[in-house]
Amino acid sequence: MLTMKDIIDDKNPLIRKKSKDISIPVDEQTRKLGIEMFEYLKNSQDEEISEKYDLRPGVGLAAVQVGVLKRMLAIYIPEIDENGEITHCDQYILVNPKLISYTAKPSYLKNGEGCLSVPIDQQGIVPRHAKVTVEAYDLLTDKQVKIVARGFLSICLQHEMDHLDGILYYDHFNKDNPHAPISNAIVIE
Questions:
Q1: What are 41-97's pLDDT values in tens digits?
Q2: Cα 153–chain centre separation
Q3: 163 annotated to a ligand binding site
Q4: CA angle 107–109–115, rounded 5-degree value
Q5: Diameter of the chain measured on Cα atoms
Q6: DSSP labels for 157-175?
Q7: Catalytic residue set
Q8: Fewer C-beta within 10 Å: the chain N or C terminus?
Q9: Residue 159 and residue 2: Cα distance in Å, rounded?
Q10: Which residues contact 45 (CB under 8 A, 6 or more apart)?
Q11: Which keywords does this Swiss-Prot/TrEMBL entry list (predicted)?
Q12: 124's torsion region: left (phi>0), alpha (psi -120 to 50) or beta?
């Protein structure tokens, strides 16, 4: 089971390295890592498990964040109703994800982004594309997938794919004014 001790932080130079493509079919070691990354995300969102193992909650995790330079990321974003039941869940373990198209319209998270590899939150607006289309091999379904994402999922995919190229969310801040509003952007709560 992955825990916070397995996640490297932004002081580790490895976090700035570019990850390498993965051969398909995926070898067992890589598959096991993808599943462990996915399980970390699920566990981190379970109050009991998260508290027991001192896990920071996360919705996305890239392989480089656990010290492996492979182009793989996991996403787990459940939508929960007032009764605590999951009504929808965006969940993937993506291998070799590629951004194939995006809208010019910007978006950003109103309260900013966070990252498991950034122990001290950096405050600022992170401009992202409002809509993206990503192609990848999904280990959860063992199929090639095309994901058209908007809103929070779009931002999460872009954040995790940045990790694969050694980019952290605060690299996108406006250097002169990190809180400068972005005109015409969709603000996501």
A1: 999 999 999 999 999 999 999 999 999 999 999 999 999 898 888 899 999 999 999
A2: 9
A3: yes
A4: 120
A5: 46
A6: HHHHHHHTTT--GGGGS-S
A7: 160
A8: C
A9: 20
A10: 57, 58, 59, 76, 78
A11: Hydrolase, Iron, Metal-binding, Protein biosynthesis
A12: left
pLDDT digits (tens, 9 = 90+) for 19-49: 999 999 999 999 999 999 999 999 999 999 9
Q: What is the pLDDT of residue 80?
A: 87
Block residue for tokens 């039941």: 85
**Distance between first and last Cα of the chain:** 31
Q: Which residue has the tokens 């809103």?
A: 151
At 85, list the tokens. 């039941």
Q: Is 156 annotated as a binding residue?
A: no
- Decide if 39 contacts 22 (C-beta within 8 A): no
Token pair recorded at residue 80 = 């929960």
Which residue, among 108, 130, 116, 114, has the nearest Cα to 174 in the 3D structure? Answer: 108
Separation CA 130–CA 43 (nearest Å): 28
Give, as one character, the DSSP assignment of residue 3: -
SS3 91: strand
Domain boundaries 4-187, corresponding CATH code: 3.90.45.10
